[in-house]
């Protein structure tokens, strides 16, 4: 790593020629007009600009390069340097001081602008404290107006008018011939301008033309994960670098692929097609109209691919453990990604079908998105072996232990790797996985460690909890029938068709008036159940009253409608007249929900008051 002081003019020339470019993972970002003027003032005063950082390519870029904004004429050239830190500063200075076109910028409200930058010679030779005021920008036509564009404040539309006003055009500062021509016009206006020009050249032009840019140059041998870490530490914009973006640039720069296919690899296009296929069949993975990263993300997919790849490497004794850490994703070769991506995409389709069987069909109802990553990896490794009767039961148990035990609420990378290895060993046909002992007798940590405390039901009050969503899905799965559309139990399709959501059974207003001591339990999942929007319109006042109305609308006999209520694990007698009994309702339903949870987790879990139940 070397630190060089480079002449600003030489750096901007490298930008124009394509010697200095950006790695494609750098985002476009325009500085606003005010910030550009302040930057120019800093350069004219010869104040420190701050270090910029670049990666040497050695003539072969490991990333797909792209030119800085405004230097598109240099596209196609292999850069010698890739700018990691300093994009905004170098782009702004290149457009304002080197390119013979107006600068593409924005105002403080983000409105696009095209501006030329000038410096007021008379102000510039004054006190340095006034330098910010000396740098001005004017519109594309070089006419500055005020009073809603009715009055011309400054007209710089010709060289003669620039000279008469004493405003030097900064975009010619590195062109000695044009500077000399402008000077000739300037002194024609008034021979006395020679004196002020001499001061201007000494205190302003020389500062700009001799300005030094401190640049750290990283060697071409710098690893990709090191480049990523360096970029995030030095990036002054505060924008975190996404691994997907870095791989996009890396894969696009893969010359073997270009030589074989005649074009660079477009990872975002591939991911978008995968995501479209998944969401068209299973909406639980997200809504494409909300963006390709809505729901299942590119990072989730890459992690699943990395888990499968590192599993294969471990089986081949090339590594000691399965992993999907950042460095594993950054070291994922394009050839391996292209080989594994179709298999992992099919695995996620299987996961979508599995979730549908669990009556989880919408993104908002998904307890943990992260838990899908190891599940897809397991399916990709084992294939149809996950469909055998014993295997699918164990997968369901593992899944519900993860959800109801809230095992995926914290750091997930280490759990990913343990679950992949342990779940594969637990469900794979004996003899198919080369490990010592019988792995099918070793219960995965997610199953063994999961616990659901009886009083957890009291605190499950919002969708922020995975267990809250889990109980809701289990109620649907075990056969709940809607209270308006009573012809059949709720299904995955009906959840969407009838806009089913979690609705309160005893309205909060009724509890506040009739059972104020139980008000804290009003929002508990125990007092909620999956119902259609149409049914929810009737849920006001006393349950005894609104249920009578729903029963009449259904055309059912009272005892039949009570059977519908019972499908929600509710004791109907607690809701009817002469007076609904919230406390008795709550205790009865909590018992049944705990039995439901225990059945899904496939294990006796922790109850704090067993004797009372």
Overview of the structural elements:
The protein has 27 helices and 14 strands. It has 613 residues and is of the alpha+beta class. The protein has a six-stranded mixed β-sheet with strand order 1-12-3-5-2-4. Strands 6, 7, 8 and 11 form a four-stranded antiparallel β-sheet that branches. A two-stranded antiparallel ribbon has the order 9-10. β6 (103-106) and β7 (112-120) form a beta hairpin. The protein is elongated.
Uncertain residue ranges: none
Instruction: Please tell me how large the radius of gyration is.
Output: 34 Å
Spatial sequence of strands, sheet with the most strands:
1-12-3-5-2-4
The amount of helix comes to 40-55%
Strand content: 5-15%
Task: Tell me how many strands there are.
Answer: 14
Q: What is the helix tally?
A: 27
N- to C-terminal distance = 69 Å
Question: Mean pLDDT, as a whole number?
Answer: 91
Shape: elongated
The chain-level structural class is: alpha+beta
For the sheet with most strands, the description reads: 6 strands, mixed
Give me the secondary-structure topology.
Blueprint: E1 2-7, H1 8-17, E2 20-23, H2 33-44, E3 52-56, E4 65-66, E5 81-85, H3 87-97, E6 103-106, E7 112-120, H4 121-124, H5 131-134, E8 135-139, E9 143-146, E10 151-155, H6 159-165, E11 167-169, H7 176-189, H8 193-209, E12 212-218, H9 224-234, H10 243-252, H11 255-261, H12 267-281, H13 298-315, H14 326-330, H15 334-357, H16 372-382, H17 389-404, H18 413-427, H19 445-449, H20 456-459, H21 466-477, H22 492-497, E13 501-504, H23 508-514, E14 528-531, H24 533-536, H25 543-554, H26 558-566, H27 582-601
């Amino acid at each position: 790593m070397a630190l060089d002081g480079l002449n600003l003019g030489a750096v901007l020339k490298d930008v124009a020629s394509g010697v200095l470019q950006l790695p494609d993972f750098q985002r476009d970002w325009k500085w606003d007009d005010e910030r550009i003027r302040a930057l120019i003032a800093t350069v004219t005063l010869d104040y420190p600009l701050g270090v910029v950082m670049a990666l040497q390519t050695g003539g072969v870029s490991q990333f797909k390069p792209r030119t800085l904004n405004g230097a598109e004429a240099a596209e196609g050239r292999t850069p010698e340097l890739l700018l990691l830190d300093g994009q905004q500063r170098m782009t702004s200075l290149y457009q304002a001081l080197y390119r013979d076109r107006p600068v593409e910028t924005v105002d403080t409200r983000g409105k696009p602008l095209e501006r030329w930058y000038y410096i007021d010679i008379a102000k510039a030779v004054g006190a340095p404290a006034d330098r910010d005021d000396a740098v001005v920008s004017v519109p594309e036509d070089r006419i500055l107006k005020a009073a809603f564009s009715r009055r011309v404040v400054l007209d710089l539309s010709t060289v003669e008018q620039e000279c008469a006003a004493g405003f030097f055009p900064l975009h010619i500062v590195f062109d000695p011939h044009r500077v000399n021509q402008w000077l000739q016009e300037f002194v024609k206006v008034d021979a006395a301008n020679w004196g002020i020009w001499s001061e201007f050249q000494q205190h302003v032009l020389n500062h700009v033309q001799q300005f030094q840019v401190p640049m750290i140059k990283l060697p071409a041998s710098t690893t990709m994960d090191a480049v990523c870490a360096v970029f995030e530490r030095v990036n002054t914009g505060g924008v975190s670098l996404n691994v997907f973006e870095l791989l996009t640039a890396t894969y696009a720069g893969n010359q073997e692929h270009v030589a074989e296919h005649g074009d660079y690899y477009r990872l975002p296009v591939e991911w978008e097609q995968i995501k479209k296929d998944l969401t068209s069949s299973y909406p639980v993975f997200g809504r494409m109209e909300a963006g390709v990263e809505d729901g299942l993300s590119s990072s989730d997919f890459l992690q699943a691919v990395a888990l499968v790849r590192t599993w294969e490497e471990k089986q081949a004794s090339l590594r000691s453990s399965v992993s999907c850490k950042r460095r594993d994703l950054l070291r994922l070769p394009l050839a391996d990604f292209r080989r594994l991506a179709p298999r992992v995409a099919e695995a996620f389709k299987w996961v979508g079908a599995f979730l549908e069987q669990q009556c989880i069909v919408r993104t908002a109802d998904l307890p943990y998105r992260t838990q899908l990553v190891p599940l897809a990896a397991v399916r990709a490794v084992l294939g149809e072996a996950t469909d055998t009767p014993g295997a699918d039961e164990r997968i369901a148990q593992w899944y519900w232990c993860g959800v109801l035990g809230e095992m995926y609420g914290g750091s997930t990378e280490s759990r990913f790797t343990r679950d992949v290895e342990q779940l594969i060993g637990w469900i794979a046909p004996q003899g198919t996985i080369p490990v010592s002992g019988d792995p099918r007798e070793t219960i995965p940590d997610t199953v063994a460690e999961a616990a659901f405390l009886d009083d957890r039901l009291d605190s499950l009050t919002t969708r922020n909890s995975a267990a809250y969503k889990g109980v809701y899905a289990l109620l649907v799965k075990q056969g709940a029938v809607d209270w308006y559309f009573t012809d059949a139990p709720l299904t995955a399709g009906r959840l969407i068709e009838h806009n089913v959501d979690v609705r309160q059974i005893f309205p909060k207003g009724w509890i506040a008036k009739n059972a104020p001591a139980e008000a804290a339990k009003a929002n508990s999942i125990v007092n909620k159940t999956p119902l259609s929007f149409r049914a929810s319109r009737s849920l006001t006042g006393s349950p005894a009253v609104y249920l009578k109305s729903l029963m009449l609308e259904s055309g059912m006999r009272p005892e039949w409608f009570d059977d519908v209520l019972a499908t929600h694990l509710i004791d109907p007698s607690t809701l009817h007249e002469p007076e609904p009994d919230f406390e008795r309702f709550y205790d009865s339903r909590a018992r049944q929900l705990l039995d439901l949870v225990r059945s899904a987790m496939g294990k006796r879990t922790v109850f704090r008051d067993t004797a009372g139940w």
